[in-house]
Amino acid sequence: MLLRLPSKHIIQAFQRKLLSWYFLHGRKFPWREIQLDPYRAIIAEILLQRTKAETVSKVYLEFLRKFPSWKSIVDTDIKQLESVLTPLGLYRQRARGLKALAEKMIDTKGILPQNRDELMQLPMMGQYLANAVELVLWNKPSPLLDVNMARLLERYFKKRKLADIRHDPYLQKLSSAIVNTPNALEMNWAVLDFAALVCKAVKPECEICILNEDCKYYKNSVKDK
C-alpha cells in the first residue's frame, strides 16, 4: 500500500515552527548539557524509557556517580541496582536488562556494533533505543518515536492505522521525515518537549498552540466546540 506523507513544504513549515519554539522554550536536562560517550548516552535512554524526563533528571547524575561504567553495573548486586532504580518504576525489569547489557558490553570491551542488525541483538536494544544510538552517537536522523512523539504527529497530521507504533508504516515513515534535518537531535527534542509542555495527553493547550492553524486535531475536535 502506498504511504502518502504530507508534502515537503508542509513538513518543513512544521519543522521551522517547532525548532523556533524549542530554542526559546526547550527543556534543560543533564544528558542534553554534557558530552555523551556511549555509556552515558545509553544509560540516559534506558532510564528515559516509559518514564518522565523530569523524573529521570533527578536521578541521572547520581546513577552515573554510583555506576560510572559497565563494569560497575556488572559488579553490583542486583538488589542494590534495583534499589537505585526504584524511583523510576519498572525497576526489576530495568535492573535485569541493564545487568545483561553491561555483561555483553564488557565482553565487547565497551564497543558497540557498527550496524543496525547487530545492534538490535544486544539486550534491551529495541527499536527506540537503537534509534537513540543512531541519533546521539552515530549522527543519523533517526526518530525518538514514543507515545509522546506519536501523539503530536497524529494530532497534527493524521492518525496511524496500527495499535503498536513500532509497526505502523505511516507513523514510522512520517517520524523519520520530520527529524530528517541537519538539526535532527534538536528536532527530536523539540517534538518531545512540545508534546510534554503544550500538546499534552490530557488538557492540551490548543488555544495557545503555535501549530493550531493547521492542526487537524484542533480543527476537528477543539475549534468548533
Describe this structure in words.
The protein is mainly alpha-helical. The protein contains 14 helices and no strands. The protein has two domains: 8-27 and 141-222, Endonuclease Iii, domain 2, CATH 1.10.1670; 30-137, Endonuclease III, domain 1, CATH 1.10.340. It is 58% helix and 0% strand. Helix 1 (8-25) packs across helix 13 (184-197) and helix 7 (78-85) packs across helix 8 (91-107).
What is the C-alpha radius of gyration, as a whole number of Å? 19 Å
Order of helices and strands: HHHHHHHHHHHHHH
Mean pLDDT: 94
Structural domains: how many: 2
Q: Point out poorly predicted stretches.
A: none
Largest sheet: none
Count of runs of 4 or more consecutive helical residues = 14
What is the general shape?
Answer: globular
CATH T-level topology of the largest domain: Endonuclease III, domain 1
Overall strand count: 0
Main CATH class of the largest domain: Mainly Alpha
Distance between the termini: 35 Å
Please tell me the CATH architecture of the largest domain by its name: Orthogonal Bundle
Helix content class? 55-70%
Beta-strand residue percentage: under 5%
CATH superfamily of the largest domain: Hypothetical protein, domain 2
- What structural category do the secondary elements indicate? mainly alpha
